[in-house]
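Handout, section B. The chain below has 59 residues.
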Amino acid sequence: MSVIYLLISISIFVAIGFFIAFVFAVKSGQYDDDYTPSVRMLFDDELIKSKKEKSTTKG
């Protein structure tokens, strides 16, 4: 029975360690999206054209 308590306590410490690592990665910008803004400028004209087409077909 004492082995179960030991394993549970170790797993809780490991989970807390992973959570701290995740929070640190998010705060340091590890998950910031650098690719989408550079590609978005390629499709801005298509978005504007499709909005104009929708507005001209309605009116």
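Note. The CA atoms of residues 12 and 40 lie 42 Å apart. Compare this with the example in section A.
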